Amino acid sequence: MARAVTNNRKALNTAIAWSIGILIFFPILWTILTSFKTEAQAISDPPVFLFFDWTLENYTVVQERSNYMRFLWNSVVIAGGSTILGLIIAVPAAWSMAFVPSKRTKDILLWMLSTKMLPAVGVLYPIYLIFIKLGILDTRTGLVIVMMLINLPIIVWMLYTYFREIPVEILEASRMDGATLKEEIIHILTPMAVPGIASTMLLNFILAWNEAFWTLNLTAAKAAPLTAFIASYSSPEGLFYAKLSAASTMAIAPILILGWFSQKQLVRGLTFGAVK
Amino acid sequence: MKLKNALFAASALVSAATTTAFAEELTIATVNNGDMIRMQGLTDDFTEKTGHTVEWVTLEENVLRQRVTTDISTKGGAFDVMTIGMYETPIWARNGWLVAMDDMSEEWDADDILPAMRGGLSVDGTLYAAPFYGESSMIMYRTDLMEKAGLEMPDAPTWEFVADAARKMTDKENEIYGICLRGKAGWGENMAFLTATSNAFGARWFDENWTAQFDQPAWNETLTFYVNLMNDAGPPGASTNGFNENLSLFQQGKCGMWIDATVAASFVTNPEDSTVADKVGFALAPNTGLGKNSNWLWAWALGIPAGTQKEAAAKEFVEWATSKDYIELVAANEGWANVPPGARTSLYENENYKDVPFAAMTLESIQSADPQNPTVDPVPYIGVQFAAIPEFAGIATEVGQEFSAALAGQQSVDEALEKAQALTTDAMEAAGY
Q1: What is the pTM of this model?
Q2: What does CATH list as the number for B2-134+297-354?
């Protein structure tokens, strides 16, 4: 009897989880479906769900009008570059905060997080002027730096949380065996924190990929990533929803695929240390 | 023969070197509108003629406005040519941010530009941006529904007639609404429409001393008329409708009338997208007999930021894109219905263009708007559906939110106007007017 109740509850939980999952995924699914419709079908009322004349025309038009590969490559370099650079800085920083904390460590962590509370537009002009002076406006280098700085507090915080789960005794033992600081971080700490580092890396990559304020404002033609590619298909005067959906699908496809293949790693990392 | 070949090769080298020396790569910021997209498709013609290449940065209108404003105000130099509107041009020109277009070639023929467009893009008689295409607003209406209501649309209707027709055409059970108007908040959304409409009712944003005028009877009359009409004959949820939402409703046959940008005419008459393509008529935006119509005036123009390193090449591009030859080029490739409208007088004298169904009404609408004298009573600003001062966009967006809330029934017309008056007065005082 008890078993039956458990199964019922399981079924209910599963149904609720699926409903929420579908609800969250529905806008993405709708975008993907719209990308295969004609512009007239895209706005038809009542909306058509699956039974329409599927067409690839929107993808053809988008391909003809835009150099998708250039936008994609810029996105990969900016998201990838900023993630790697961020990790190089954040791993030692998080190590120091987790294993040799000072009186001010908590304050520093909070201060780092507080930089995320400032609306980005508040510092647009100073950063824009710095970029002009340094000659890095509309360059991938400039955006890698900015993306890295924006996401650095999150990387440090995440790594700090993961590192705190690692027993300090293991590191002490390695020191007893004569490991240098560099060896301790690279050979002892990093392998143990791989799930945490991997999920931090993935999350940071996704955040940098989706970032649309700085990537739009600090680029023109050369370093513009996929966020600019989507923005070029949005129009306040003209119904181009099907083409916009095709552009959006092309922009999110790489990150969706990456997320799909790495979901195990991502979930493991995000729940790391959550249950003891 | 060898000598001839050598000479030929040498001359080819010199020619190539010369072309390379003067060939520039221009970065051009533009919006995602049909006419701009067509221009991008024809860029090869410009490159063939001049040797210059073009990198396009296409952005959504609001993103573009923020992007180019940041760049030009910091002298960033990211763009060599910018697509700007009638609102920015006089403000930026006064700031010294734009290159004057006073030395264009004779073939370009500056005198051919429609006077209303020229007036809106000039400061002290000097043109600062070349109009690529211009638009006004007009009534698009369903001829079949108008006939069914037993009415005939005059060429220049009054608001009284339009309101009466809208109420008669409305059949809410069958989801047919007599009139679709903008309700979404924003200075370029509901405030573009309502400011232009208020001109016909004798209202104005500011008096000659820059004092806000929302506490005057003319504004109350405008807003009361609009809210009542929309409640009686407008679609549900109108307070969130902008151009695209109304276009969608009209194309699906749910609007009896729609007053919006003239550029919409090509969409609603296109049988591929519109279910009512063969039942659309056009008329001038309504008036109230005070001498001003409710139509606005807008131009998307090409401006060159002062301080660009490639001014000569940028001017070559502007000349190419806004020339008479360009119009011929589009006509040859895409047909006369797709040429950029509303910029040149010669286009409306062209016999081929006279066959386009909405051409005459577009021209009449543009000509009936006067950005230098937009209102019944005198005003200190330029602009029909806006006041060309830097503070306007921010103030009008806030006022638009109050008016949108009044349309949604969240507050009364009086409350909305009271708040509009207070916030406009505060903002103008803070700005030092």
Answers
A1: 0.85
A2: 3.40.190.10
